[in-house]
UniProtKB/TrEMBL annotation:
It comes from the Bacteria. Pathway: Cofactor biosynthesis; NAD(+) biosynthesis; quinolinate from iminoaspartate: step 1/1. Keywords: 4Fe-4S, Iron, Iron-sulfur, Metal-binding, Pyridine nucleotide biosynthesis, Transferase. Its cofactor is [4Fe-4S] cluster. This is Quinolinate synthase. It comes from Halorhodospira neutriphila.
Length: 319
């Protein structure tokens, strides 16, 4: 405990020395989320993290999250230094959608509007017409569908199928998935609901359709967090990364939160609904990154300009 206190102190000092602010994702460890809150940083979903970083006066952003989040921060604020504890922290959606293969997929469907999820590399975003997050995906695709546009969607097939069901849009889907949300199990969830009939079910749309079907609320991390506070229910079954429980407990201290059942990827994982790449972020690696001012996220200017264009479309639509 003493060592962790010392680490926290060192990080506070380094943040000040480097003119840096810590932005942490909801799925990172609670101690990083706490430190971000205590040092005037922010804890948020991927897009809110980027927005906060853009508006904050610090010249360096220390991004605790996964690589595409660091890239998005760099794309939106090219003048800032973006440090990450671990550049190898990635995402199965990003990994499963390499830019060259994605460009070939787009070339096969030149008549379709290309909409990609925020969980992609800057290079994939640069090839897209639109970037969306899970909080705005249905609204954007409905808008495009009403304009008569047909959609090419990547990379998450579960989110893509969900958007298609909600909007009725004509969508071609890339075959990608999140290794965390894909593990939620419909039969076991139904069983848990039988044992807790008072609980409301909150599901992130990266989950399989049979899990989404059982949800009272389907939404992004921020939307699920809001639901815990706003819905008048004593308990909730939550199907998203367990990292979110820190903020949920903080925001709604009296409520009972239950983890939605997973298939169980490994016998050793603390919680199977916890992203192994998010877990690469820790106090020690953060302190080292600040100490060395590395590793730094770089995005080449042409790619950044392309990604900024499709991100900006989403932000203009949301405004
Ligand atoms: O699953 C993820 O990685 C999410 C929900 C990211 C984000 O904040 O949009
Ligand atoms: Fe990617 Fe899933 Fe991890 Fe989010 S939780 S970063 S979508 S692998």
């Amino acid at each position: 405990a003493q060592e962790r206190d010392a680490l926290r102190e060192r990080i506070r000092r380094l943040l000040a020395e480097r003119d840096a602010v810590l932005v942490a994702h909801y799925y990172t460890d609670a101690e990083l989320q706490r430190l971000a809150d205590e040092t005037g940083g922010c804890v948020a979903d991927s897009l809110e993290m980027a927005r906060f970083g853009a508006e904050h006066p610090a010249s360096t952003l220390a991004v605790a999250g996964v690589r595409f989040m660091g890239e998005t921060a760099k794309v939106l604020t090219p003048g800032k230094r973006v440090l990450m504890p671990e550049l190898e922290a990635t995402c199965s959606l990003d990994l499963g959608c390499p830019a060259d293969e994605f460009a070939a997929f787009c070339d096969e469907h030149p008549d379709r509007t290309v909409v990609v999820y925020a969980n992609t590399s800057a290079a994939v975003k640069a090839r897209a017409d639109w970037v969306v997050t899970s909080s705005i995906a249905v609204d954007v695709v409905r808008h495009l569908h009403r304009r008569g546009e047909r959609i090419l969607w990547a990379p998450d097939k579960h989110l893509g199928e969900y958007i298609r069901r909600e909007t009725g849009a004509d969508m071609r889907l890339w075959d990608g998935s999140c290794i965390v949300h894909e593990e939620f199990r419909a039969a076991e969830l139904a069983e848990l609901r039988r044992r807790h009939p008072e609980a409301r079910v909150l599901v992130h749309p990266e989950s399989p359709a049979a899990v989404i079907e059982q949800a009272d609320v389907v939404g992004s991390t921020s939307q699920l967090l809001r639901a815990v506070v706003e819905l008048d229910a004593p308990s909730f079954i939550v199907a998203t990364d367990a990292g979110i429980f820190h903020k949920m407990h903080e925001a709604a201290p009296g409520k009972t939160l239950l983890e939605a059942p997973t298939g169980g990827r490994s016998a050793t994982c603390r919680s199977c609904a916890h992203c192994p790449w998010m877990a690469m972020n820790g106090l020690r690696s953060l302190a080292a990154a600040l100490e060395r001012s590395a590793p730094e996220v770089e995005v080449d200017p042409a790619t950044a300009a392309g990604a900024r264009r499709s991100l900006q479309r989403m932000m203009d639509f949301a405004a």
